[in-house]
Amino acid sequence: MKKVDPAELKRLRALIIEKVNAVPPMAVHAGQSRDFKAEMEERDRRQRAMDAIVAELIEKEGARIARRSFDGRTMTLAGIRCSCTHGSSGLLANWRAGALRHLEAMGEAP
After folding, report:
1. Residues near 63 by beta carbon (within 8 Å), at least 6 away in sequence
2. pLDDT, tens digit, for every residue of 74-102?
3. Dihedral sign of CA atoms 88, 50, 104, 3 in order
4. How far apart are the first and last CA of the chain?
5. 32, 33, 55, 82: which could join 95 in a potential S-S bond, CB 3.0 to 4.6 Å?
6. What distance in Å separates the CA atoms of residue 76 and residue 110, rounded to the nearest whole number?
7. Whole-number Å distance between alpha carbons of 92 and 110
């Protein structure tokens, strides 16, 4: 396991949780409406918000993004690497889970 700073992981994990929780939830979910356009607009709005969080992590926190395939990405931040094929929301969730696993392994779980 790569050596990482537990205080930095806790700070970044809390930051990501705060930013993701600040994104309003989807008002229209797939299959709950006959308005496909509204569903797609909601999905796109939420995806743009998650993309903005990732962009901020790149700009301000030194996150690095690599594309593994046409739809998959890998993000490295504070020594934790994760990947996802489900967009930025999945990428952020996977990074948080990886950070938590590292913190637990170090006996530093929040």
Report:
1. 54, 57, 75, 76, 77
2. 999 999 999 998 889 999 999 999 999 99
3. positive
4. 19
5. 82
6. 21
7. 18
| Eight-class DSSP state of 35 | -
Instruction: Residue 72: name the closest of 82, 54, 84 by CA.
Output: 84
Residue-wise pLDDT for 5-60, tens only, equals 999 999 999 999 999 999 988 776 666 667 778 888 888 999 999 999 999 999 99
Measured distance CA(25)–CA(17) in Å, rounded: 14
Determine contact, residues 60/48, Cβ cutoff 8 Å: no
CA 84-29-54 angle, 5° bins:
35
Burial (0-12, 13-18, 19+ Cβ within 10 Å), 92: buried
Q: Does residue 98 contact residue 84 with C-beta atoms inside 8 Å?
A: no
Structure tokens at 98: 């990886």
Helices 6-22 and 36-61: angle between axes, nearest 10 degrees: 150
Gap between the Cα atoms of 37 and 46, Å rounded: 14
